[in-house]
Here is the input.
Amino acid sequence: MDSATDTVPRSATRSATALSLRCWGTRGSIPSPGPATAKYGGNTPCIEVMAGERRFIFDAGSGMRLLGLDLLAKGQPVEATIFLTHFHWDHIQGFPFFGPLYRPSSRLEIIGPSQGDRGEMDVQSLFAGQMGPIYFPVPFQAISAECRFDHLNEGSWERDGVAVRAMRVRHPSYAVGYRFDFAGKSICFIPDNELLGESYPTGPRWRERLVEFLSGADLLIHDAMYTEEEYPSRVTWGHSTFRQSVDLAHEAGVGTLLFYHHDPERTDVALAAQVDRMRKVAAAEGMTLRIDAAAEGHVLDLQE
Here is the structure.
């Protein structure tokens, strides 16, 4: 797999087993544009995965707007399956600005965990509420794309050789992480997760089950919002540290770890310093894990 710092051009024709990923948003909590964040990006979470010719989108942060513009510029009908980890604002704020929503030729399947103590808050209602007149000027009824809404709290979604599994993670609200398997390759996407948190109803053996869930993945994109020095004042905020993410990836036998959900206050210089620091830690402890930080606009090709 190419380094996270390499940009891989996407050809017009793709192998049926090609698997690639593009980061459209990597920041957490709130968009943070500006010269200090230009390298790793200021848009909030959105990842595009191409499996053969099939398109999958993970989370609908502000980066989703740019993805929509890119898709519309191609001039082709848009078909995509969208998986949401949860409904905090930074993970859904790009949805109303996703251009293909307003094209009748678009076909979108939107999947995420239902919310509430009994799962009574469904995905469609949550988005319709977000586009209510108090919050947004364009009504939900203006969507002209063919949309199908479904739920996946824990379990699996399988179709045409693609398998997506969901597992509940430690974060306020019902949040999940995903494992995407296709053509012998695997991508795990867990943007919000407090690895050391104790106040989450995730059940027994959670850490053990998480390691099993991630085991042998080619790529893990994981929450690394804080440094070890910052974390003590942010316990229960729902996020992990760089070092905690490295230890998890090593324990699970992951090939490559990308730090994700970057703190909006962390500059490119500071983030690059953390990457360098964690690479040295991993090397000193004999880890073979490859480490980088997710960067907006970069494409990773997982096909050997």
About this structure: The helical segments are 63-73, 89-92, 123-130, 206-214, 242-252, 268-284. The longest strand covers residues 19-25. The CA atoms of residues 5 and 298 lie 7 Å apart. The chain has a mean pLDDT of 94.
